[in-house]
Amino acid sequence: MLKESLFRFPKSLKRTNFHYCPGCHHSLVHRILCEVIDELNIKERAIGIASIGCACFIYNYIDVDMVEAPHGRSCSVGTGIKRARPDLIVFTYQGDGDFAAIGLGDSLHAASRGERITAIMINNTVYGMTGGQASPTTIIGQKTTTTPFGRKPEEHGYPLKVAEILSNFEGVAYAARVAVNNPKRVIEAKKAITKAFLAQLENKGYGYVEVLSACPINWKMDPVSATKYVDKLTEIFPLGVFRETL
Question: Which are the contacts of 15, defined by CB distance < 8 A and separation ≥ 6?
Fold first, then answer.
């Protein structure tokens, strides 16, 4: 008789087919997030917040209480919930446009205050849902619908390196950047997300994880090429832990 496999379907993940484009990494992050929620035994206390973009579809797949925030305001909504109910475990799930463009002020000030929330930013260097426009993390030379000849620093500025920025904030207990384009990196991503939640559970401060993610449709690549392209992004956005006070 075969032994029961340790690779189980997460209790916090709904048994619903993902609708994401082939090669998109949102589904991988969803599963990792649910595994962490299960292993930390916080499912009944967890409350997630997302606002707009592909990230908002998380409501359909994760079986915890969810709140929809106005565009870019997830960290502010999370702050309100956590201060009103400090017993809850609050996390935001946002894209790079949501977290680092319209929501940059909310995101940075929540981190600066050391709010006891956990923030996950999916960085695919483009606005995924709304037409493939340039985002704050679009890399130099990258073509988007709003940078058809490639991002030029003299016209569009340089990509924001959010993990590095947050590493300077005293209120941040944990800040890391990970990727999920190979098995080793998936394991590392899970460890990072776990630590970002522990920053909250241990009342240390703000926890942040940035996940480099593929967007094959807007990158105009097939899924395999997009997964390999994430390696190029790591040259601009290095992986690693940038701040840890746990």
Answer: 9
**Which pLDDT tens digit goes with each residue over 113-170?**
999 999 999 999 999 888 889 999 999 999 999 999 999 999 999 999 999 999 999 9
Domain containing 58 equals: 26-244
- Residue 35 burial (CB count, 10 A): 19
Q: Is the pTM of this model over 0.85?
A: yes
Residue 230 located in a structural domain: yes
Longest dimension (CA), the chain: 65
Domain count, the chain: 1
3 state DSSP class of 141: coil
Q: Which residues lie below 8 Å from residue 112, measured CB to CB, with a gap of 6+?
A: 169, 170, 171
Asked if the structure places residue 4 within a domain, the reply is no
Encode pLDDT of 196-245 as tens digits. 999 999 999 999 999 999 999 999 999 999 999 999 999 999 999 999 99
Tokens of residue 239, six digits = 């992986």
Q: What is the CA radius of gyration of the chain?
A: 17
Q: Which residues of 180-194 are buried (b: 16+ CB within 10 A; e: fewer)?
A: bbeeebbebbbebbb
- Asked if residue 218 is part of any domain, the answer here is yes
3-state secondary structure of 210: strand
Digit-coded pLDDT (tens) for 63-116? 999 999 999 999 999 999 999 999 999 999 999 999 999 999 999 999 999 999
- The answer as to whether 11 is a domain residue is no
Q: What is the 3-state secondary structure (H, E, C) of 154-199?
A: HHHCCCCCHHHHHCCCCCEEEEEEEECCCHHHHHHHHHHHHHHHHH
